[in-house]
Structures are given as structure tokens and as C-alpha cells.
Design brief:
- The chain has 209 residues and is α+β, with helices and mostly antiparallel strands.
- The protein folds into two domains: 78 residues, Elongation Factor Tu (Ef-tu), domain 3, CATH 2.40.30.20; 85 residues, Elongation Factor Tu (Ef-tu), domain 3 (Beta Barrel).
- Helix content is 17%, strand content 41%.
- The protein is built from three helices and twelve strands, in the order E-E-E-E-E-H-E-E-E-E-E-E-H-E-H.
- Strand 4 and strand 5 form a beta hairpin.
- The mean pLDDT is 91.
Length: 209
């Protein structure tokens, strides 16, 4: 579990394909001291496991299904990534609960500065919009953000200067892909309502039998 508050911007040192998918070595100048082998590290919002640590770098393995469902497979040497370690019991929850399970990949449609803040509009898969509401939480490349506006196929997030500067958002341009994770509470609620609906139908069938 994560909070969506980015703790470091890492740099991809190397990318190596193997039978399982791809192996990445990432330099984390501020976070490396806190990373241990087998730790979960959210990398652009994807929960991955640190398998090796050397100096300021750590190694992660992304399997084929992860490469297919996220933008991790597009990463190359020199690219920057958002990093966050898993939430601990004593940590403050400053963002929202983020699982590190990406629900879809979106594309940036516009980047605009509004005074000191920034607005980024993102086109997302249509099936995700039932979980997205204005003023609701959403994770974009692992960053906890609030939805400012919604349209039929896009949502817009407003970003304060600190978040823009201390995440990889300041490197993004129109057309770039981003990992999207919707608020898990919305998915739990949907599942509960669907289960309750199925239960009601079953009870009606039994009653009419």
C-alpha cells in the first residue's frame, strides 16, 4: 500500500530484457538508504519488488503482464521515474490509499499553466470513468492527485508548484503515456453493489420457485 506522495525521482540506469520480462536498474539518490531487498517500491505507480541493491541503485523485475498493462515497458536508459516506498504503520497518510495496481494507461492531451499552478488533461480508457468523479482522488504515474474537471473521455488535474517540480510531471508533454489507478474505494463499492444486486436476484428466484 502507498500514499501517492512521491519521495524521490529515480533515473533508469539500465534496461535488460529476459525470459520473465524486463529488468531495470534505477538510481535513487534520496531514497536508496531506505530501500531493502524485497521491499515494495512504487515505480511510476507500479508496485515492484527490489531484488538487488548496490550503492545508490536498486534492481527491479517487471513481468510480461506488467509491461503490457502499464507504461513501464516504454522506459529506457536515462528516463526519470517517480518512486515511493510502501506505507508503514507509523507513517502519515497525506495522499490517499494507492495499491500500485495500475488500472489503465492514459495519454496527456494538454499541459497548461494557470498562474502558479498547472493543469494537465488526460485521456483515459472509457471503462475507468465510472470510477472517476470531480474532486475525487486518482493516481497518475503514482502521484496522488485530485480530479478538477471531467469530460466524456478526459479528466483534468490541477497541480501545485511543489508537486509539479518534485515529480516527473514537469517532464511530461502532450502525447506522453501515464499510468492510471482509480480510487480503490470506488471499485470496492461497485463490487459490493454488484454482489448485493446478485444476492437480491437470487433471493427473488428462490422465493418464486
Amino acid at each position: 500500500m502507498f500514499t501517492g506522495l512521491i519521495k524521490d525521482i529515480g533515473t533508469i540506469e539500465s534496461v535488460k530484457s529476459n525470459s520473465e520480462g524486463k529488468e531495470f536498474i534505477i538510481r535513487a539518490p534520496n531514497l536508496y538508504k531506505d530501500i531493502q531487498i524485497d521491499d515494495s517500491v512504487a515505480t511510476n505507480g507500479v508496485c515492484l519488488t527490489a531484488t538487488e541493491i548496490k550503492g545508490e541503485t536498486f534492481k527491479i523485475q517487471a513481468v510480461h503482464v506488467t509491461l503490457e498493462k502499464t507504461n513501464i515497458g516504454k522506459l529506457k536508459q536515462g528516463d526519470k521515474v517517480n518512486l515511493e516506498l510502501a506505507l508503514r504503520p507509523m507513517d502519515r497518510l497525506g495522499g490517499h490509499f494507492v495499491q500500485g495496481h495500475v488500472n489503465g494507461v492514459g495519454a496527456i492531451k494538454s499541459v497548461k499553466q494557470r498562474g502558479k499552478n498547472w493543469e494537465i488533461s488526460i485521456e483515459a480508457p472509457k471503462d475507468l470513468f465510472r470510477y472517476i468523479i470531480e474532486e475525487g482522488s486518482i493516481a497518475v504515474d503514482g502521484i496522488s492527485l485530485t480530479v478538477a474537471r471531467l469530460s466524456e473521455r478526459e479528466f483534468t488535474v490541477s497541480i501545485i508548484p511543489h508537486t509539479y517540480e518534485y515529480t516527473i510531471l514537469h517532464t511530461k508533454k502532450i502525447g506522453d503515456s501515464v499510468n492510471i489507478e482509480v480510487d480503490m474505494m470506488a471499485k470496492y463499492l461497485e463490487n459490493f453493489l454488484q454482489h448485493d444486486k446478485r444476492k437480491s436476484k437470487f433471493e427473488e428466484m428462490v422465493k418464486d420457485a
